[in-house]
Amino acid sequence: MASGKKRNRRLPPLLVLLVLVVAAFYFLTDEGEEREDQADPGDEMGIPADAPADGLIPVRLVKTIDGDTIKIRYEGKEQNVRYLLIDTPETNHPRLGKQPFGEQAKERNRELLNGGEVSIEFDIGNRTDKYGRLLAYVYVDGVSIEEKLLEEGLARVAYVYPPNTRHLDRFEKAEKRAKDKGIGIWSIEDYATDRGFDKEKAEEAADGHPTEEKPAERFKNCTELRKVYPDGVKKGHPAYEARMDGDKDGVACEPA
Q: Under 8 Å CB-to-CB from 239, ≥6 apart: which residues?
């Protein structure tokens, strides 16, 4: 005769282990999906496009060669640096000669570089060109020199060779702002092209007047200029005009 008590049936140990493994799998999967959805844009799941490739590397400036090339002391020796993603008019090219706004770009580059601590940033592609020059972005106190030159109408976006395109979007926006204002190289119709700078167009537009005298930034008078540049501007600056340099000392609209 069967007993009235119910038999206590236990699950086999192997089946218990299988249930625990499946439960753990679903728990970890759900938690992982939640973490991915909440990933910080600055972590490995979403590095900002303008984040430094290897960080900024402090260097010592030796000299300014032109608007887009400098000489620095890096890793114990002097090396030339060609700015990535931009091109400025020539100042003394063996074939192209001196191009309009080339001297202004060089002087503005020199002025910016002398304003603080210089550093460079490499992109993820080649670090040198066929001439042995370093290819890098250049900064002064963390401010992009390339972006400044583009925004002031003294450079164009050029020589875009992936994967060295980290700051391309920012640079193109800076270039567009200068284009929209019609300043610097953009003040001469068809001068800046995809192939470089058309000196003949500049000469036609100049109509017998030196193009270099046309400033990239125009101000009606010193009062207006000092609202933007309280200490005045030196010769070579995009806003410099000889008419506002009364004492002819190379500085326009300096405080009295």
A: 215, 216, 217, 218, 219, 225, 228, 229, 233, 252
Instruction: Confirm whether 146 is a catalytic residue.
Output: no
Please spell the DSSP secondary structure of 220-238, one letter per residue: SSHHHHHHH-TT-EETTST
Q: Which of 82, 110, 156, 166 is catalytic?
A: 82
Higher model confidence: residue 199 or residue 42? 199
**What local confidence, expressed as pLDDT, does residue 30 receive?**
41
Asked if 189 is an active-site residue, the reply is no
Catalytic residue among 108, 133, 156, 166: 133
Catalytic annotation present for 203:
no
Q: Report the predicted TM-score, pTM, of the whole model to 2 decimal places.
A: 0.64
| Burial bucket for residue 122 (CB in 10 Å: 0-12, 13-18, 19+) | buried
Provide the pLDDT for residue 248. 78
